[in-house]
Amino acid sequence: MSFNIALSGLNASQKDLDVTSNNIANVNTVGFKESRAEFVDVYAASLLASGKTKVGDGVLTADVAQQFSQGSIQFTNNALDLAITGNGFFATVPELGSLETSYTRAGQFKLNADNFVVNSQGGHLLGFPVNSDGSSASVSLSTAEPIRIPTSSGAPTATSEVDIRMNLPAGDAYISGAPGNFDPEDPLTFNNSTSVTIFDSLGDSHVMTYYFVKDDPTVNPNQWLMFAAVDGVPIDIQDPNTDAIANGRVGGAASGPLSTRPLPPPNAGNFGLVGARLEFTSSGDFIDQFPPLADGIITEQLGSTILSNGAESSQTIQIDFNLDPLAPNPNEPTQFASNFEVTALNQNGLAVGRLTGIDIGPDGLVRATYSNGTSEPLSRIALVNFANEQGLTQIGNTSWKESIVSGEALAGEGGSGTFGTINSSALEQSNVNLTTELIDLISAQRNFQANSRALEVDNQLNQTILQIR
Fold first, then answer.
1. pTM, to two decimals
2. CA-CA distance, 381 to 393, in Å (whole number)?
3. What's the half-sphere exposure (Cβ side, CA atoms, 13 Å) at 48?
4. Does residue 256 have a pLDDT over 80?
5. Which of 72, 243, 283, 455 sits 20 to 30 Å CA-CA off 204?
6. How far is residue 337 CA from its own chain's centroid?
7. Who has greater pLDDT, 457 or 89?
């Protein structure tokens, strides 16, 4: 019997050595969880045997239990490197459409050839679908899908409105001959100018420039003319309610509010342009404009020059001055005794955006940013927890699968309930303490030697008995 006891001790010591060696071997494995060999004694006695004199029958390995304590966090420069601080596992599937879910703490993710977020083994990271505001549409693991990062942000949007706020200097001098001598290529024929990038229906960019010319203060006091050009080609600013080109050119004098006046006599300038007229009070408040709603029209006749790429040639761009006829407001243009200053110049068009970056929040929200200045929520990384983590089945590659002992997978968002938070550009290191493992290694070695010695002594005793005559 003593042979069997010593032999069980050898087996237990060998198992302890194996577990310790495996921990040491994975000291640099991302997301690895150390194991601990747990032993129990063997004791058996018959019904009538005396328990006071019964000796144990050795030792057995009861379990090799993994310890899911938090590993240290190492920060990286890769936004797709993910680490969980607290409870939870990442969920992955081996291929699209698969229901074979595995769970891991190793967050070394990257993009594959189809722009899906995958780990080194090709497992697709699962995420919950999100609404346009970034809120989760569902937190059920059955609705989780592989996360894909699109390289473009969709179809372009043609510019339809430009919002502009500026101050026109009240002290600017009247340029003799204006606006009849206006020439966009001659800065001596206009007082100020500003530009904004607009987009056509194909997402191609163009530069729209606005030129401001102070009118003759003896004829039209506190009035300015505004002309426009796209990519250096002058365009007409037309009244959306009438044919401004047929009725004449902006210029000359008339009485009454601008929005109710007939168009003044022609004043075409060098290019025969139709411009807009802006009127201010003596205190610098913007009170009127003509046309009533100034629209810059890229007409069909300019299609071969400005929009030679095949974009929609009848694109209309509305110029919004935020006119409030009742009282001054901070969104209107002004005419004060200060420098020319553009305080707002925005347009609503978009080019086709290309992916420029990925941002992942502590709650797992994946947001893509694009070169056209937009950002878009794509998905929310699914986290999964279990009632008994140590009951998970190891499958290698620092991954586990659900088992009867572990309980069912419980899905949720990072930072909610008992789930930990997600750190982007970080990795969870192995939770192995190398110093402790080396001490355990020495201890396991001593145990092995002691059991070997017990086996040797048993053998010597048997030899002594066999030699008795």
1. 0.71
2. 23
3. 0
4. no
5. 243
6. 45
7. 89
Q: Are 138 and 129 a contacting pair, CB within 8 Å?
A: yes
- Give the helix, strand, coil percentages of the chain, each rounded to 5: 15, 35, 50
Q: At 61, which helix (H) or strand (E)?
A: strand 59-66
SS3 410: strand
Mean pLDDT value across the chain: 86
372, two tokens: 């056209």
For 55, 212, 226, the CA distances from 275, given in Å and listed in that order, are 109, 10, 5
Question: Which CATH code fits 161-347?
Answer: 2.60.98.20
CA dihedral 392, 397, 398, 401 (to 10 degrees): -20
Q: Where are the alpha helices (DSSP H) in 337-433?
A: none
Structure-token pair, residue 341: 């200053």
Max Cα-Cα span within the chain: 144
Cα of 254 vs its chain's centroid, Å: 56
pLDDT at 20 (0 to 100): 95
Bigger pLDDT: 438 vs 293: 438
| Residue positions counted in the chain | 469
How many Å apart are CA 422 and CA 319, to the nearest integer? Answer: 45
Spatial distance between the Cα atoms of 104 and 66, rounded to a whole number of angstroms: 13
Strands 316-320 and 161-167: parallel
3-class SS string, 184-224: CCCHHHCCEEEEEEEECCCCCEEEEEEEEEECCCCCCCCEE
Do residues 118 and 108 make contact, with C-beta atoms less than 8 angstroms apart? no
What distance in Å separates the CA atoms of residue 384 and residue 84, rounded to the nearest whole number?
11
Q: Which residues pair with 103 in a beta bridge?
A: 91, 400
E-only strand ranges, 248-297: 276-280, 286-290, 295-297
